């Protein structure tokens, strides 16, 4: 059986403690899988076009004594995450060669996917395919489900979003604007703040690195208090938010990126406000909302086609650049949704 | 107009920082109010029979820059809290002399209540009247609403309760048993642990002071994890609970007594489990559930009459003993619901 020439991939070199570095990963070239799945197999062979860099990957690089919500990566094995793929060969009745799909794949050129039931079809291939790693993929559904289902917004409410120019934050903010909320975002550079105000049309935005007293800053931006905090960062930002929440406020806990590279998480001191302000803080994972995906895809594709939402990506070219791209998430050097283009068709 | 001879009361001497001490309060004797409310007034004059000692009173003794959920006490003025009272004179059409009521009153012998709309009638006066400071009053409704409305239990779920022999904890545990949950409580002495197991029929209970590793202890008591944590203490207990929660678990945040005497609260480090385990942590205040009170009173009075729930009180006699009784809550020396008997009829 013919084989692709080779298969470049990014592997985890060792379990990571502390700050992730490029040296924790390695780009290697392997023998490629056969060009067709074996007869009788229900697997699909895909060519990876784009793969996504997402903060939660850092958690998978730490060895967990107790099983976490996603399996740990294994040193020596290829990294995996959401990607956009072209099916090359399929043993599964739902897919055929040529199909465009998105879902979990390897950080490599070609991947054999043994559970193709996990893949989503791409129904709007005329939109940029890379969007299916972001606004039309996992981060988009995360923003949509977390905002509407978890934080349960009402028109006119005050919304604060941290990491607001990131893959999820930029979408939450725009969805909040669409339904008539007042939206302020924080980000870690003036360039990102400018994006939030001009491109994403937030009501206001600020550079948290320039605010020595974050609690006071939030009091300035939200003199009436915050109804919904879309939590992407955790730690001291959460501590500054809690006293600024309004009675009955909601905190949709999507991620806590400020904590992922710490050996010991920061302590959050202001939790008693959860009692006195009757707050609801609720975590969620996008996996629990996969059954809404196609409904979401239609709605978001519509917004994109109508120009109702903007979207900013930060794309690096090729797997050799992938380790550095992943690290950018934690140093805040990405501007917009970070992804890797493996092959442009 | 005739007057009662005198009116003994407990006043706050100064705003409190750090650990509450008896010296922060003072028992003084004042001129008593007139024996009848003035013509035209809608106030009621009550004779206080029992007053409740509740942890939240500590928060009112600290000066808050921003208004909190209840007003701060004022140095020099009488302390106030829930009590059981006999109406002596009423200018309000809903009350007449002789009525038994419960609600917010002063820590004193006689109080003029200017907003009698805030009072609840006592519909089961043949049960011990003191119960209306506890199982039939604010702590009872707190337990009932927090457990059923906030934590939304299902039969067979695993429930952990901290400060479990306290006013609220003992009731939550017994309600959980009634609907078929598995209930474990923690408390701070072997005597309390024994109460939990024998009197309140918890499935299990432990003395947290004898557990050097609380997280490991909870893993032993809940090998399947915790569905509902009824949070009364905060701080390191919360940190130990979070990794032991099950997917989709709920934390009903009722209070955080371990933190009330600290100038700077402890930091809680394990909040990321809120995301990975999709937890909901929700604060509540009993005030939001007052409209259910009479329904609750009937249900709980029924349980008491049928012997379905047990109830343990820790009663001190007289206002002179009230400051020390309040402090017992924070040193853990009370056994069961702490209250002060001012006058036994």
TrEMBL record, chains A, B:
PANTHER family: OS12G0226400 PROTEIN, PROSTAGLANDIN REDUCTASE. InterPro entries: ADH-like_C, ADH_N_2, ER, GroES-like_sf, MDR_fam, NAD(P)-bd_dom_sf. This is Enoyl reductase (ER) domain-containing protein. It comes from the Eukaryota. Homodimer. Keywords: Oxidoreductase. Residues 18-340 form the Enoyl reductase (ER) domain. SUPFAM superfamilies: GroES-like, NAD(P)-binding Rossmann-fold domains. GO terms for molecular function: 2-alkenal reductase [NAD(P)H] activity.
